[in-house]
Write a structure and sequence with these properties.
Blueprint lengths: L1 H12 L14 H30 L6 H4 L14 H25 L3 H32 L9 H4 L9 H42 L1 H5 L3 H26 L1
Helix pairs in contact: 2-7, 2-9, 4-5, 4-9, 5-7, 7-9
Length: 241
């Protein structure tokens, strides 16, 4: 009788409702990646909180719909948030291809892992290219670290009736924070592209196939998804609010 009960309990524990794997039974490298991402989240949070504190305590602020209304190389004005919408779409799609690469790694499909990793790298490069175009356009408008457009040009980015002194102060804050935060995020995307390229080369060399596991793809995937998630907050703070 006792043996039958024990067998029944063991059977119950092995069902899909038994809780799955223990959250503490995590591979060392993956856990360290989570620790790194947590610390990086604190850094981005500090930057975005600083931006929010200055933004909402300021009497006025450059209007996003007026600052970001161009599509570099095609439309000079009248297309608010179209270009950054394209940038966001590209980065999100690169996150999708990374998911597919991780899934292919779980099936030990070397060819599919390489294909999806290459698409992910391409998405990262396209995003960085778009960011470079946007930076170049804003620099042409007169925005840069410690530098703002002329008084006449600056009128285009504010609602009417705002004193020049307030425009100058908040424009400096906007420019410094924009290039610092988007630049810091861009550095993360660039780092991700470099890391993904190295990992893809290792896949081609058969490194992970010899190990019998593509766990490394999952680790870099965590980093890439984190970078994409951070962009959602940067997009919200700078372009929508």
């Amino acid at each position: 009788m006792s043996t039958a009960v024990t067998q029944h309990v063991d059977e119950v524990k092995s069902t899909p409702w038994s809780g799955g794997r223990s959250p503490f039974n995590v591979e060392y490298g993956k856990m360290m990646m989570w620790f790194f991402l947590l610390s990086d989240a604190f850094t981005f949070s500090s930057l975005l909180i600083s931006y929010g504190a200055l933004r909402f305590s300021a009497p006025t602020w450059p209007a996003p719909s007026l600052v970001f209304q161009s599509f570099p190389g095609l439309i000079e004005s009248g297309a608010p948030l179209v270009f950054v919408g394209l940038m966001t779409f590209i980065l999100i799609m690169s996150s999708v291809t990374m998911v597919l690469a991780v899934e292919a790694g779980h099936r030990n499909s070397k060819k599919e892992v390489v294909t999806w990793m290459l698409f992910t790298i391409l998405g990262g490069l396209m995003f960085l290219s778009c960011q470079a175009l946007e930076w170049n356009h804003l620099h042409g408008e007169g925005f840069w670290w410690g530098h703002i457009p002329t008084a006449e040009k600056m009128q285009e980015f504010f609602k009417t009736g705002v004193p020049y002194a307030q425009q100058a102060m908040t424009s400096h804050q906007f420019a410094n924070l924009f290039f610092t935060i988007t630049g810091f995020h861009g550095f993360h995307v660039f780092s991700g592209v470099v890391i993904n390229t190295i990992i893809t080369i290792n896949v081609l060399l058969g490194t992970y196939q010899k190990r019998g596991s593509y766990l490394m793809i999952e680790k870099v995937g965590l980093y890439w998804h984190f970078v994409d998630l951070v962009w959602v907050f940067v997009f919200t703070f700078f372009y929508l609010v």
